[in-house]
Amino acid sequence: MSDAMSSHGKDAVSSHGEAGGPRGESEGARLWDRFESSPSSTPAREALILHYAPLVKYVAGRVASGLPKSVEQSDLVSYGMFGLIDAIDKFERDRGARFESYAVFRIRGAILDGLRSIDWVPRSVRARARRIEAAYAALESEHHRAPTDAELAAELGWSDGELQSALAEIAQTGLTALDEMLSLDTGDSVSLGDTIGTEGDSAGTEEFDRADNRQVLGDAISGLPERERTVLLLYYFESLTLAEIGQVIGVTESRVSQIHTKAMIHLRARLAVTVVDPS
User: Fold this and answer.
1) Of 147, 139, 278, nearest to 224 (Cα)?
2) Which residues belong to CATH 1.10.1740.10 in the chain?
3) Which has the least CB within 10 A, 80, 152, 210, 228?
4) How confident is the model at residue 169 (pLDDT cuts 50, 70, 90)?
5) CATH 1.20.140-classified regions of the chain
6) What is the pLDDT of residues 226-271, one digit of tens each?
């Protein structure tokens, strides 16, 4: 990938909101000094929350891009604020990690918890997604490679049109958005975005010390078809939007959304095969 894309990914958090950039980092350090000198000070804590609030809006916007319009971004921001507060309370600054990276992890988790609590995805759509995932897993186990759309449709007993229609419907609900939970053979459930993280952004905490999870996911991603793999890498590692990815690979935003949906279902299926046959 180009250096420009790589730069885009590394600057994704720092380029959004007041918390990024040299001035923002300097102000953040001053506010942390103030807070740590008086942890029980409400004004000091509120100043940190206000300073890093743009991170919540940024993460909420990223998550919202994969959700139906019926889900209000303001609700995501509300969920995310709880994650930011939790991050401030639990962050261990003396480990030398960047707070922004740790906060994004906590904010995203709080938003996902909020979304799961309202369960906005129709049961019929979840059922179709599970059927597709099971078909992927069965075909991959049988052929030891990624199945084609034609093979997948045949396994499901659907026409190609029915398969594409189901994938489009799943994409519209946001069921396989960035942060759908993935079950790993380590016994953990983590989100793709949290696990693959940016190199060097470890917060020094338990959530960021799971090299085994990264290895499992890395192996699963490497086995995806090239276009699916490219979409995941551009979205998660480079922080490009779906529209920007469409410009890079030469397809429409809606098509990128559908490819992302296939990639996530396929990834979940590959991980399911790994659980059954870890060899």
Assistant:
1) 147
2) 3-118
3) 210
4) confident
5) 123-276
6) 999 999 888 877 778 888 999 999 999 888 988 988 888 888 887 7
Which pLDDT band, with edges at 50, 70 and 90, does 141 fall under?
A: confident
Tell me the C-alpha distance between 56 and 275, whole Å: 34
Contacts 24+ apart (CB under 8 A), 208-216: 208/97, 208/102, 208/105, 210/186, 212/186, 213/184, 213/186, 213/188, 216/184, 216/185, 216/186, 216/271, 216/274
First to last CA, the chain: 31
CATH 2.30.30 fits 123-276, yes or no: no
pLDDT at residue 26 greater than cutoff 60: yes
Confidence of residue 186 (pLDDT cuts 50, 70, 90): very low
- 205 contacts 102 by C-beta, under 8 angstroms: yes
The tens digit of pLDDT for each residue in 142-167 reads 988 889 999 999 999 999 999 999 98
Per the listing, tokens 């102000």 go with 27
CATH class of 3-118: mainly alpha
Average pLDDT, the chain: 77
